[in-house]
């Protein structure tokens, strides 16, 4: 039986090769929050530097939103153990969203500001690409959110070019299920930093996650069917 690490690296390699995510000389900034997904992605890409034919440089980019109790030291220790440069951008996003604007539904504004800070910080650090930890389950959840709440068919793209900044966003975990990431983190004993946001677990995405969890108890291939529909629809 293959180890969880071998399985993870294989799925990342498949995505990278299939969508041409990495070219020689790329400087890739991994959006690193310390959660399971970004930790698995950072670990996976740091290991693949030894095997992928295209040589590339890797760094971790953390956007500190300003929440008390954010364990930045654990992130720094992990980066050091992987031999990855770590760039931290301290922001006032928490203060703006929760204290100044007192947003009733803060997630959208927070996500936009966080994304902008990540792209700007990565570009200033010399990165031409940003790698995000969106996994296979995230693709499905985003598809359902767009369909239910926006009335459109949409989800993440494996590769997205941002014309305004020149940054290319890649998502190497698109073939990795959330359960596989949890199993990998457990197998390796990697430290994970919790999300300090008070809205964590109360979002629309969490609603979709709970919905999928209930659906998965019926047809075993429900997630595979949804991914198949997304691909046949030309969305992925």
Written overview of the protein:
The protein has 236 residues and is α/β, with parallel strands linked by helices. It contains nine helices and six strands. A six-stranded mixed β-sheet has the order 3-2-1-4-6-5, with helices on both faces. β2 (57-64), α3 (72-82) and β3 (85-90) form a beta-alpha-beta unit. α2 (36-48) packs across α7 and α6 packs across α9. The chain is globular.
Characteristic key phrases:
Rossmann fold, 9 helices
CATH class equals Alpha Beta
Average the pLDDT over all residues and give the rounded result. 92
Largest sheet: 6 strands, mixed
Q: Which outline best applies?
A: globular
Q: Could you tell me the CATH topology label.
A: Rossmann fold
CATH superfamily: HUPs
Describe what is shown at a glance.
By secondary structure, the chain is α/β, with parallel strands linked by helices.
Set down the secondary structure blueprint.
Blueprint (H helix, E strand, L loop, with lengths): L3 H15 L8 E5 L4 H13 L8 E8 L7 H11 L2 E6 L2 H8 L6 H18 L4 E3 L4 H15 L8 E3 L6 E3 L7 H11 L15 H12 L6 H11 L4
Parallel strand pairs: 1-2, 1-4, 2-3, 4-6
Antiparallel strand pairs: 5-6
Helix pairs in contact: 1-2, 2-7, 6-8, 6-9
